[in-house]
What we know:
The protein is of the alpha/beta class. Helices cover about 35% and strands about 20% of the residues. Strands 1-6-5-2-4-3 form a six-stranded mixed sheet, with helices on both faces.
Amino acid sequence: xxxxxxxxxxxxxxxxxxxxxxxxxxxxxxxxxxxxxxxxxxxxxxxxxxxxxxxxxxxxxxxxxxxxxxxxxxxxxxxxxxxxxxxxxxxxxxxxxxxxxxxxxxxxxxxxxxxxxxxxxxxxxxxxxxxxxxxxxxxxxxxxxxxxxxxxxxxxxxxxxxxx
Length: 164
Ligand code: AR6
């Protein structure tokens, strides 16, 4: 059974095997978690992302999918990039948000990772309501088959929503 932790903090500071990035389909960086990961991870992360774009991911990474790169100067071993759905009030995209978690875990396990840190995917620039994202994320990581899952939340409101 996985241990699931909920901490207030900065995901780029985590000492875990895998840090999950709330990326966009370009894989070439952005704001929020993505910006912080690229700033701290340095050129090795961006170079690996550029190589992915030059190869199998020429069209970018699709929403809900996940792909790994080295973590550069971060304390983690790998970054697993996933693209959360943008919140929509008229279309239910919950399955895509669940996919982000399932696919990130799948990639992490394929690397032999024993610990993984998730941010609150889609709840920032992509505007997903926090309580709803928390429910979807918690359900999606249940029975994950990895030793440690840590949600790293950036503010008290998000921490309180994610923590059961
Ligand atoms: N550590 C942990 N959580 C953080 C950090 C951090 N260093 N920085 C922000 N958060 P967001 P999204 C929180 O916007 O909604 C980028 O431009 C933040 O407060 O990073 O999936 C990408 O390139 C919020 O609770 O991700 C995409 O274009 C949560 O992390 C787009 O943003 C997610 O916020 C993705 O948007």
